[in-house]
Amino acid sequence: MDIGKKIRNLRTMKKLTQEELAERTDLSKGYISQIESQHASPSMETFLNLLEVLGTSPSDFFKEPSSEKILYKKESQATYDEYDKGYILNWPVTQSNEFEMEPLILTLKAHASYKHFEPSESDTFIYCLKGEVALLLGDKHYYAEAGDALYFKANQLHRLANQTTSEVQVMIVVTASYL
């Protein structure tokens, strides 16, 4: 691990010059330059002081970046066919409950609905892909056709329903795991 390079990257992310970092740590600009170029190794006390000024902890500094999965192929997605109950669930990102957002593609057959959701502080985004979906939010009803979007704070009892004779498909993205 190139400690000097990591310190330089943190310093530039904080928009500090070598001189500013030196002033805040009671070190010389030349010594900061030597640390960043791997020509000097700071003492433990100096190193911890640098990390404090740069706003990080030793554990975060030494933590290796995890390889982030970007692409989720069709084969890795999960589908739950509950069509006898009136719906099909497709989870494009199967471990999404570990993330900030949780996407779901919901298909509702004619005159079917999908569970009552308890109030939460989650933001909810619903995009109607096919048909017309009804959102019952508290005591209000909203109707979205293909191409329409719904976005709301899920702080009231709510439910999705298909009140038509055609199949409906929506993409739902929530900021908390409660689907």
From TrEMBL:
<dbReference type="Pfam" id="PF07883">
    <property type="entry name" value="Cupin_2"/>
</dbReference>
<dbReference type="GO" id="GO:0005829">
    <property type="term" value="C:cytosol"/>
</dbReference>
<dbReference type="InterPro" id="IPR050807">
    <property type="entry name" value="TransReg_Diox_bact_type"/>
</dbReference>
<dbReference type="GO" id="GO:0003700">
    <property type="term" value="F:DNA-binding transcription factor activity"/>
</dbReference>
<dbReference type="Pfam" id="PF01381">
    <property type="entry name" value="HTH_3"/>
</dbReference>
<dbReference type="InterPro" id="IPR014710">
    <property type="entry name" value="RmlC-like_jellyroll"/>
</dbReference>
<dbReference type="InterPro" id="IPR013096">
    <property type="entry name" value="Cupin_2"/>
</dbReference>
<keyword id="KW-0238">DNA-binding</keyword>
<dbReference type="InterPro" id="IPR011051">
    <property type="entry name" value="RmlC_Cupin_sf"/>
</dbReference>
<dbReference type="InterPro" id="IPR001387">
    <property type="entry name" value="Cro/C1-type_HTH"/>
</dbReference>
<feature type="domain" description="HTH cro/C1-type">
    <location>
        <begin position="7"/>
        <end position="61"/>
    </location>
</feature>
<dbReference type="InterPro" id="IPR010982">
    <property type="entry name" value="Lambda_DNA-bd_dom_sf"/>
</dbReference>
<protein>
    <submittedName>
        <fullName>Cro/Cl family transcriptional regulator</fullName>
    </submittedName>
</protein>
<dbReference type="GO" id="GO:0003677">
    <property type="term" value="F:DNA binding"/>
</dbReference>
